[in-house]
Amino acid sequence: MKGCCTWNRWCGIGRDRKNTRVERKGDKRRAASFSRQNTWTRTAHPIQREETQGEKHLLEQDALDDMNPSDRFRKDCVLFYCPEAEELAKKIASESDCIELGDISWQKFSDGFPNLYVRNALQIRNRHCAFLASFHSPHVIFEQLSIIMALPRLFIGSFTLVLPFFPTGTAERMEDEGDIATAHTLARILSHIPLSRGGPASLVVFDIHALQERFYFGDSVHPYFASGVPLLRERLSRFEDKDNIVIAYPDEGAWKRFHFYFDDYPELICTKVRDGAKRIVRLKEGDPNKKHVVIVDDLVQSGGTLLECQKLLATLGAQHVSAYVTHGVFPNASYTKFMPEENGNAKEGFKYFFITDSCPLTVKNCSGRRPFEVLSLSRPIAEALLT
Length: 387
What we know:
Blueprint: H1 2-11, H2 17-23, H3 28-42, H4 53-66, E1 77-81, H5 86-94, E2 99-101, E3 104-108, E4 114-118, E5 128-132, H6 138-150, E6 158-162, H7 182-190, E7 201-206, E8 221-226, H8 229-236, E9 245-249, H9 252-258, E10 267-275, E11 278-285, E12 292-300, H10 304-315, E13 320-328, E14 353-356, H11 360-366, E15 372-375, H12 378-386
Parallel strand pairs: 1-2, 1-5, 5-6, 6-7, 7-8, 9-10, 9-12, 12-13, 13-14, 14-15
Antiparallel strand pairs: 3-4, 10-11
């Protein structure tokens, strides 16, 4: 009989579900909540007041009880995000009906420390959840880590952290005793993400600076290293002069990282030579004469190397010079150094400068500004979340 009653509840058979729950023996809390609700409804001028946390919890539990059992174990994804990554999160959700956006209240206490709240926490149980992070500044890392460490403990089915830009990637080694490899530090912190019900967390990172950094992570997190370079290839296929493109690398490290993406393109390799305190860029192999040269690298900071490459290639006869980096960091507004090409003269600047939206603050500064063009990571991130 008990099983039949339970089945009738899920099928909506019999008396109203809410009344059935209220009349259930011993369920005093919900009966009181239901009584208050009816009282407010009957009042001509209901008292407007904010719901307490306990009442919110009861309402969320009621919604969970009303949910069809099959919906509790849906295999789609609930994507939470930090405030700075909201635009990218919306683009990711638009890529698939299987991705819905979660809701987090990002507030601060009077002392400046974060006051965070995950809304509808009960409804994400047994769901696949992800968090889109942006560690663009040390000031925002703590509050985002608080969410990252909390979500797997909410009885979710599995957890994925999407960190498009791994910010300490360039500090991956020690050159002198006493140097701190902060890439290893951040990797150790992320390796302590709690286990979800489905096991270790997954970590999605795009074009990490040094591939050996995968070994900095512990066994309790599974890093997945993706690349934004396929977005560039897709964009190059739509160039009017696509048959005249040559791929250039600012150094041998970039060639080792990305050359296998461009087996069907001619290539140039530059190299950096020290002259006292200066670094001089020279052409190691290849011919840029009368070609549209596209420089490819993983990230740009001050941009000195890319600017030197552009000047060198233009001097050697390149018809156009463009550039691509997955991560446009641009500290101290260094993006203002990159000028657009005018009148088809490669010596004046770049025809195109492609970046992705891995660094949200850079996107705000560079969108609509020549020569920059943003290639969104929304599609590859959506694919990573659903495969």
